[in-house]
Specification:
289 residues, mainly beta
Length: 289
């Protein structure tokens, strides 16, 4: 954020800024600039002690004089001493340039999660010829039934009427003319800038919109369109109803299993948990400068 000590208006006139409150504070501060030193005379807030002893010498104080007694700071307002500072509340680090210490970090490590990825497993072996008994399970086989399908139905005829041709009358509109804006113009603007601590205003009046030849536009419908058509005939034919029957001959499915090897494959996902890891902190040294 830039500082501002002057303002330049749109007509080019520059004005200086004056802070009356700041001038009064500066005038008051200038009265409190005389530091006497450390006194051996006991001072308290509100005491009217005058003179005081500094470096074994008697000093007569006046308004604005500052002195230290012990860890406290006092200023003389012309009548009494007023305490405005006390360094006794500062800790031991206030008088050190650096400090160090040790610490052991504390905390826990969250238990990681385990996600298994599906793997594959295969099994192989052999089977001898003979009969096979399946206790549980299921099986599938493909076969083509022998027989014929017959269908009987009755033809249906449906008739209806439609109007496929005709004409639509023209639509009549109510119209009006509107201005044709060829340029929207520009809005007025006021910009500010700060240069060399001077606030400057720049004003632009903008420009008006420009108009061209008026345009004719529709405002409403004067006459709704009408449709005139000639009636015709529509005929539809098909066989939408009937029944089908199937007659076939039973077929016996037979087969045998020869000696040989068998194999099977599948997928699996390992299951289990990952133990929560432990965390041990190592003592380290912290240095403060």
């Amino acid at each position: 954020m830039p500082d501002i000590k002057k303002i330049t208006t749109v007509n080019g006139t520059t004005y200086d800024l004056v802070d009356a409150g700041a001038r009064e504070l500066i005038s008051e501060l200038q009265q409190y600039t005389n530091y006497l030193g450390v006194t051996s005379t006991a001072l308290t807030d509100g005491a009217s002690t005058n003179p005081i002893t500094i470096d074994n010498k008697q000093v007569t104080v006046k308004k604005g004089d500052i002195a230290n007694y012990g860890s406290k700071e006092f200023i003389f307002n012309g009548t009494v001493w007023q305490e405005f500072g006390d360094l006794s509340g500062l800790g031991s680090l206030a008088y050190k340039n650096s400090a160090d210490g040790s610490y052991t970090p504390q905390g826990t490590v969250s238990q990681p999660s385990f996600t298994g990825t599906a793997g594959s497993v295969s099994v192989s072996g052999s089977i001898s010829s003979g009969s096979v008994t399946i206790a549980t399970g299921s099986g599938t086989a493909n076969y083509t039934p022998a027989g014929s399908v017959s269908f009987s139905g009755s033809e249906l005829t449906s008739t209806g009427k439609f109007t496929p041709s005709g004409s639509v009358s023209n639509v009549e509109l109510n119209t009006d003319t509107v201005p044709n804006v060829t340029g929207v113009g520009s809005l007025p603007s006021l910009t500010t800038s700060v240069e060399n601590e001077t606030l400057q205003f720049t004003w632009s009046a903008g420009s008006l919109p420009t108009l061209g030849t008026a345009k004719t536009v529709a405002t409403s419908i004067k006459t709704q369109p009408a449709f005139t058509g000639a009636e015709g005939n529509l005929s539809v034919k098909g066989t939408p109803a009937g029944s089908a029957t199937f007659s076939g001959t039973g077929v016996e499915l037979t087969g045998s299993i020869a000696d040989g090897s068998i194999s099977a494959t599948g997928t699996f996902t390992p299951e289990g948990t990952v133990s929560q890891p432990s965390f041990s902190g190592t003592t380290a040294t912290i240095e403060v400068d």
